[in-house]
Design a protein that fits this description.
Elements (H helix, E strand, L loop, with lengths): L2 H21 L4 H7 L5 E5 L15 E6 L2 H14 L3 E5 L12 E7 L8 H11 E12 L5 H18 L7 H6 L3 E9 L4 E8 L6
Helix pairs in contact: 1-3
Length: 205
């Protein structure tokens, strides 16, 4: 999908996501994933700021999104939860952070929208410090074959409607990247993927 149209779709959804944010503050999965965030932290596709309720106030936070309306909502969330935050209006693929810039990189629900998610994960590996962590909370193919088949059939419609791929096997995508998976879990019939990873440094083929 053309990037301008994709941005417009997410701009239109910003207020809806802001309303959802309050309901997420008791989300046990987000708490489990993101209470371990530490140090200089990059969050990509920050959206309306769903995760601020779970971040320690001590972190040095940088949030990125290509939707100005989403960033407006995220700024409100950061203030509400007392997180000292800097925001960058950009798509992730256009960013140019120095190597080894971040202690933690967070992505929740962003891998569905990238044209090349493996390339984006390789950027995470590059930007994350060697002893840092990459925390991914994503949605993808169900582990139930019949449901996964429906997702595959409806993928084109979902992309056109909300700019979001439904047909991605997140574990397989991460394994193809320059990240090392240390732990992963799935929930809701495998639809939600929770991945704790770190960068693979050194000679990478």
């Amino acid at each position: 999908m053309e990037k301008t149209k994709l941005i417009q779709k997410f701009n239109k959804q910003a207020s809806k996501y802001a309303k959802k944010r309050k309901k997420q503050e008791q989300n046990i999965w987000r708490k489990k994933m993101f209470q371990s965030v530490k140090g200089k932290t990059l969050e990509v596709a920050v959206g309306a700021g769903m995760n601020f309720a779970f971040f320690p106030k001590s972190i040095e936070y940088v949030g990125v999104d290509f939707s100005p309306k989403m960033i407006e909502q995220a700024k409100e969330a950061a203030i509400e939860h007392g997180v000292n935050a800097e925001f960058v209006l950009s798509d992730v693929e256009s960013l140019n952070f120095p190597e080894n810039s971040f202690d933690t990189i967070v992505s929740s629900g962003s891998l569905c929208s990238y044209k090349d998610p493996i390339q984006v994960l390789n950027l995470f590996s590059q930007w994350c410090k060697e002893d840092g962590q990459v925390l991914l909370m994503e949605h993808g193919l169900f582990s139930v074959p019949a449901l996964a088949w429906i997702q595959m059939k409806l993928d084109d419609f979902a992309v056109k409607a909300i700019g979001c791929h439904q047909n991605r096997d997140i574990i397989d995508i991460v394994k193809q990247s320059n990240l090392i998976i240390h732990k992963h879990e799935r929930a809701f019939l495998g639809y939600l993927y929770f991945i704790w990873a770190s960068p693979q440094k050194g000679n990478i083929g």
